[in-house]
Amino acid sequence: MRLERRTQTPLALALTAPLVAVAIALALSGVLIAIAGANPLQAYYEMLKGAFGSRLSISETLTRTTPLVLTGLAAAVAFRSRLWNIGGEGQFYVGALCAAWLGHSIAAVLPPVLAIPVMMIAGMIAGALLLLGPVILRIRFGVDEVVTTLLLNFIVLLFVSMMIEGPLKDPLAFGWPQSVAVSNDVMLPKLLSRSRLHIGLLIAIAAAIIIYVVQSRTVFGVKSRAAGLNAAAASFAGISLGSTLLVVACISGALAGLAGAIEVTGLKGYVTLDLSPGYGYSGIVVAMLAGLNPLGVVATALFVAIVFVGADSMSRAMGVPSFIADVIVSISLLTMLVCLLFTTYRVRR
Amino acid sequence: MMEALDIFTTASLWGAVLRIATPLIFGTLGALICERSGVLNLGIEGIMTLGAMVAWMTVYQGGDLWTGLAVAAFCGGMFGLLHAFLTVPLGLSQHVTGLGITLFASSLTYFVYRLSLPVSSSPPTIEPFQPLAIPGLSDIPFLGEALFSQTAPTYLAILAAAVTAWVLAKTPLGLAVRMTGENPHAVEAQGLNPIRIRIGAIVVGSALMAVGGAFLTTATFNSFFPTMVQGRGWVCIALVVFASWQPGKALLGALLFALFDAYQLRLQHVVEGGVPYQLFLMVPYVLSIVALIVMSRRARVPNALMAPYRRGER
């Protein structure tokens, strides 16, 4: 028995792969839920109810989907060119910090129509700049960007901690380490009244569509894909690997930075050290489950959001630790990797 | 200024260096063994977290400290086997699989921890490894306190570095592992099975990583709490590059790194006002990046690192 590379992947197979991966992950996690003393089927029912049971829970799930779409896109764009950007978490935080700082200081000077785009763009630039460092190190010195982007996540968190206890500390926060707050009139408009859902969701979906069009309809899309498929062949065909990777890095870092900027200006209003429950890392899972397809990212981000929001209320109802959400998501990543193998290879006797 | 230099003449600094270096030595050796056979193991951060928890849990449930380390090594080895199964016979992306293993191992660790201790405001502690004074040597002034009054796992870490160096350089097994990392096709031609060699190397390496994590709970902090590994695994991956994939240099690198870490902790108390403590805490991570930049060009990377081996496919 041996593996043979497929010349092309049937669409049906590509669409089935994530479903099978998630099903296996839910089955395996069900064993853990049973060990925790709960009925797995009832637990999953509680999760669905927690994620979709009421108007409030639906809006919470969609609010949680927003940053995951953007960090998922950040990973998907980079991974397609074999640029291993694991620094989404750090890029998210610098974007958030920039937006909070500007939202506090420019609100008095600029009208909201101008201030909101300025905050978004600043967050994107901050995220892009943070990723440029590791990418330049890779191109110039051959330093593996996985390790540098991972280490930068820790450096950025300490930097954020330094800023929100120092120059950007909110003097009204009673000693809590918390950044200055975004002025109320430049917060993103709500999408749904009496909920926390904001127009960030539309921005995220628009970003997914734009990335999809760029990847499938432009020369740059072809170049960025070629750089990932076969770097040697790409450069032989006259594609400059270095400059392609730099542009890809800017887009990827900007998307993660935008996620942070939107989370602050749409939802929280200020930066704390627990602003992100690992959105940067979950973004990697979102991207892989979607097979790196930008439109698929929207669907898989929704799935991951359902798991997280649902697990919280399931945990309250049934006493199963809410860490089960992280377990489900991480097993899905591993099972998806195996399923992807069968979409690119077939088994031959 | 003088005070900043005086730190170097205190025995407690040098004692702390060995203590801080111990988990890094185990972790770096583990990552090094995997990479010498040709497989990058980014599961290290999660495997260290897992090792820290299971060792602590074993002792907390009434087990012996050494049993704790053994259970940690076993569980680490099992997750190594999972990583090996996905990356070697299946040949999946080592980067993404490794991250997946880290996410899986750490989330499973937190789940099991929360399940066994549902409510705990302050994490319960265990009786840790006590310093083991080496008779005679520990009475030497200064050196005795700095080097010869460590806990037993610290001596074990140094021994592990020596054994790894010897096995890799001098034994047929070590030659086979190194050759698998350089050219698995040549290994196959010699009648050996590169797939089995890689799986074995990853299991052993992952067991060492878990022991490194276990040191944190059984000797340093006496208790387990989430996110306690704090990127030490990623630092180890950087140290492997810094060490040019040589066990001896890995030991030196870990010690040098621990020296900076121990020094910045003490410097925080000497430097007065104005300097945020976070700047000191950034030092280890910044140093890891600097080490990568300095060494990346000079390092001799194993030739087949990150290249999956499929029989009959080039």
TrEMBL record, chain A:
Q: Which GO terms describe its cellular component?
A: plasma membrane
Q: What does the UniProt keyword field contain?
A: Cell membrane, Membrane, Transmembrane, Transmembrane helix
Which coarse location class describes where this protein primarily resides?
membrane
Instruction: Give the bilayer topology.
Output: Multi-pass membrane protein
Indicate the segments annotated as coiled coil, or none if absent.
none
A molecular function (GO) term: transmembrane transporter activity
Family annotation (InterPro entries) = ABC_transp_permease (IPR001851)
Provide an example Pfam family for this protein: BPD_transp_2
Spell out the subcellular localization from the entry: Cell membrane
Q: Where are the transmembrane segments?
A: 62-80, 92-110, 116-139, 146-164, 197-214, 226-259, 279-311, 323-345
Q: Which PANTHER family match?
A: ABC TRANSPORTER, PERMEASE PROTEIN (PTHR47089), GUANOSINE ABC TRANSPORTER PERMEASE PROTEIN NUPP (PTHR47089:SF1)
Protein name in the entry? ABC transporter permease
Species of the source: Flavimaribacter sediminis
UniProtKB/TrEMBL annotation, chain B:
- For this entry, the protein name equals ABC transporter permease
Keyword field contains Cytoplasm: no
Subcellular location per UniProt equals: Cell membrane
Regions that span the bilayer: 12-32, 39-59, 65-86, 98-117, 155-177, 197-221, 277-296
Task: State one molecular function term (GO).
Answer: transmembrane transporter activity
For this UniProt record, give its keywords in alphabetical order, as a comma-separated list.
Answer: Cell membrane, Membrane, Transmembrane, Transmembrane helix
- For whether the record's keyword set contains Ribosomal protein, the answer is no
User: Record's PANTHER family?
Assistant: ABC TRANSPORTER PERMEASE PROTEIN, SUGAR ABC TRANSPORTER INTEGRAL MEMBRANE PROTEIN-RELATED
Chief localization: membrane
Q: Which organism is it from?
A: Flavimaribacter sediminis
The way it spans or sits in the membrane comes to: Multi-pass membrane protein
Task: Output the Gene Ontology cellular-component terms.
Answer: plasma membrane
